[in-house]
Write a structure and sequence with these properties.
Number of strands: 12
Shape: elongated
GO molecular function, one term: CoA-transferase activity
Number of helices: 19
InterPro entries: CoA-transferase_III_domain (IPR050483), CoA-Trfase_fam_III (IPR003673), CoA-Trfase_III_dom3_sf (IPR044855), CoA-Trfase_III_dom_1_sf (IPR023606)
Protein name: Crotonobetainyl-CoA:carnitine CoA-transferase CaiB
Number of domains: 2
Strand content: 5-15%
Strand order of the largest sheet: 6-5-4-1-2-3-12
CATH architecture of the largest domain: 3-Layer(aba) Sandwich
Keywords: Transferase
Distance between the termini: 28 Å
Radius of gyration: 26 Å
Pfam family, one: CoA_transf_3
CATH topology of the largest domain: Rossmann fold
CATH class of the largest domain: Alpha Beta
Helix content: 25-40%
Structural class: alpha/beta
CATH superfamily of the largest domain: Crotonobetainyl-coa:carnitine coa-transferase, domain 1
Length: 438
């Protein structure tokens, strides 16, 4: 495993944190936008040291994907989009399109445990930064490539974007209002789920490769594709077709296999009803005063409710319509019937359950600017996720990493900066004081 240079690099932690499960691992992050940065942020949350290599003067594309921007008094503040996927990382501004810059990245890769990149297939070969070039230099390296369509196949050379993948994968064919309804037509999911799912699958593959390396000493190349990941996540809809032969269609908020499992209009708002068993359905009918529906042989089992979905849902809609949403949800909770509201983003972020789970985390950037991030959801009892470094300013760690990790002298670093191969940023006041007194 690569050693951590945290102490030498002088991070600015707010508090001591317990040991993290991936502490001691070093990740070289050559990615931008979302799918791959999401994977490397997870590795960082779990304790790995992540070095994010960015283009001088520009950085990750998402730094400019605003508004909104984090107002920090700088001429080029970072966009909220960038902040969502780049905590627990250090930023190095290195132009690896130039030979000197590529040489620096190769040196960093020789000491890395994991490298993650999301350039187009073959895009890093011309810089000598592809898997075929780096694995001979570091046979223990786990090299993860994330692309739209993978390293092989007829689409391998194409660029892939979340919206494109949502459409090509079939996801949009089952998302949106059904034919004949007002507003019918395919709709993308309101979040870039194809990017996020791919980042999650990539992280799982990286952890599996780490276990393989632990047993054998071997690194390897991981090939992750957005299309593959989203096809894998067609789950029950794809299996419905493979088993039943019928092409799934858009159902709006209804479920293809379970009834009742959808939204209903109460007198003042919408409520979600999600009955996953016959017992829950009978409990719903009882609290609505419709025991006749529970007793109807057509609705005794889920198969019958699915077959006569339209008749049942009309009756349930009539019974739910007079209720106030809050009253119905309280009654459902008491009766053991799963359900809930349709929250807006501000509502869910203010929800007491979200607060109790500490899903919002306050962090401070090295220039003193405060930023609140959404935390890592997995709760590890012995080695929890940690929040050590707020999303970094562009190039804020270039000088420190080149000095501490590569042992470069001040004159050599300054020559690279003057030549435009690297860019640096002023260190935070705490770090400057620590270096002065060291």
């Amino acid at each position: 495993m690569g050693h951590s240079a945290s102490d030498a690099l002088g991070e600015c932690p707010d508090a001591e944190v317990p040991p993290s499960p991936l502490a001691g691992l070093k990740v070289l992050d050559l990615s931008r936008v979302l799918a791959a940065p999401w994977a490397t942020q997870i590795l960082g949350d779990l304790g790995a040291e992540v070095l994010k290599v960015e283009q001088p003067g520009k950085g990750d594309d998402t730094r400019g994907w605003g508004p909104p921007f984090l107002e920090d008094g700088s001429a080029r503040p970072d966009a909220a989009y960038y902040l969502c996927a780049n905590r627990n990382k250090r930023s190095l501004a290195i132009d690896f399109s130039r030979p000197q810059g590529a040489a620096l990245v190769r040196r960093l890769a020789e000491d890395a445990d994991i490298l993650v990149e999301n350039f187009r297939t073959g895009g890093l070969a011309k810089y000598g930064l592809d898997a075929a070039s780096l694995l001979p230099l570091n046979p223990r390296l786990i090299y993860c490539s994330i692309t739209g369509f993978g390293q092989t196949g007829p689409y391998a050379e194409r660029g892939g974007y979340d919206f494109l993948i949502q459409g090509m994968s079939g996801l949009m064919s089952v998302t949106g209002r059904p034919e004949g309804d007002a507003g019918e037509g395919p709709v993308k999911v309101g979040l870039p789920v194809s990017d996020l799912f791919t980042g999650l699958y990539a992280t799982t593959a990286i952890l599996a490769a780490l276990n393989h390396r632990h047993a054998t000493g071997e690194g390897q190349h991981i090939d992750c594709a957005l299309l593959d990941s989203q096809v894998a996540l067609l789950v029950n809809q794809a299996m419905n077709f493979l088993v039943g032969g019928e092409v799934p269609k858009r159902l709006g908020n209804a479920h293809p296999n379970v009834v009742p499992y959808r939204d209903f209009a109460a007198s003042d708002d919408y409520v979600l009803v999600t009955c996953g068993s016959d017992g829950q359905f009978r409990a719903l009918c009882a609290l609505l005063g419709r025991d006749d529906l529970a007793a109807d042989p057509r609705f005794a089992t889920n198969a019958g409710r699915l077959r006569d979905r339209r008749v049942l849902e009309v009756e349930l809609a009539r019974a739910i319509a007079p209720w106030r949403a809050a009253d119905l949800l309280a009654a459902m909770a008491k009766a053991g019937v799963p359900g809930g509201p349709i929250n807006s983003i501000d509502q869910v972020l203010a929800d007491p359950q979200v607060a109790a789970r500490e899903m919002l985390r306050a962090m401070r950037r090295d220039d003193g600017t405060e930023v609140t991030v959404i935390g890592y959801p997995g709760r590890l009892s012995r080695s929890p996720a940690s929040y050590r470094l707020a999303p970094p300013r562009l190039g804020q760690d270039t000088h420190a990493v080149l000095s501490a990790a590569l042992g470069m002298e001040e004159a050599e670093i300054e020559a690279l900066r003057a030549a435009g191969v690297i860019a640096t940023a002023e260190p935070c006041p705490q770090r400057r004081e620590a270096e002065r007194t060291a």
